[in-house]
């Protein structure tokens, strides 16, 4: 005679097969989110990495499509601004480092922090102004035909980048 368990079949405390897949999927999703956050934090400023270029790259890229004498004129127009902007980027890095140190320091000095943040803002504004002025100067040295070509050359690149021309 076969013995039967009056309470029914034995239940195991071990999770079923689908539960393991659910746990593994949950872990994978958590690691993906955590990795994205850590990568974003360590990776830097993806939203504005090229803020300092301010259109200068587009001028030099366009200039490369022109005859050599015109290329030299346009590249020379923006090269001094690039050097100044590069110097400002170094100042910006130092200012950010100073701000981080102020945040860590106890007791916290709110006035020094505000001053440091204002310095970062001023450096960024100054760099953008230098880039904008250099861009304007380069465009003003272009011939009417070059300006038309440049406007048409920029439009498709911008359309691909952000979905349309902002008019």
Overview of the molecule:
- Helix 2 packs antiparallel against helix 3 and helix 3 packs antiparallel against helix 4.
- This protein has a domain of 104 residues: Four Helix Bundle (Hemerythrin (Met), subunit A).
- With 167 residues, it is mainly α.
- The protein is built from five helices and no strands.
Quickly give the CATH architecture of one domain: Up-down Bundle
Supply Rg. Answer: 29 Å
Number of beta-strand segments: 0
Give me the secondary-structure category.
Answer: mainly alpha
Oligomer: single chain
Average residue pLDDT: 77
Note the run of SSEs as H and E: HHHHH
Classified by CATH, the class of one domain is: Mainly Alpha
Roughly how much helix do the residues carry, as a percent range?
A: over 70%
The CATH topology of one domain turns out to be Four Helix Bundle (Hemerythrin (Met), subunit A)
Overall 3D form: flat
Number of helices: 5
Low-confidence stretches are 46-54
- The percentage of residues in β strands lies in under 5%
Largest sheet: none
Query: What is the end-to-end distance?
Result: 90 Å
């Amino acid at each position: 005679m076969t013995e039967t368990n009056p309470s029914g079949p034995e239940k195991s405390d071990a999770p079923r097969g689908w539960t393991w897949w659910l746990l593994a999927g949950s872990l994978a999703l958590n690691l993906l989110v955590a990795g994205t956050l850590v990568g974003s934090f360590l990776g830097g400023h993806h939203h504005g990495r090229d803020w300092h270029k301010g259109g200068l790259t587009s001028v030099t890229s366009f200039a490369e499509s022109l005859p050599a004498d015109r290329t030299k004129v346009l590249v020379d127009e923006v090269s001094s601004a690039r050097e100044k902007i590069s110097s400002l980027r170094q100042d910006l890095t130092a200012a950010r480092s100073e701000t981080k140190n102020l945040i860590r320091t106890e007791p916290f000095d709110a006035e020094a922090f505000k001053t440091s943040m204002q310095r970062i803002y001023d450096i960024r504004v100054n760099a953008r102004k230098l880039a904008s002025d250099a861009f304007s100067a380069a465009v003003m040295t272009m011939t009417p035909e070059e300006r038309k070509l440049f406007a048409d050359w920029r439009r498709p690149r911008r359309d691909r980048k952000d979905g349309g021309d902002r008019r």
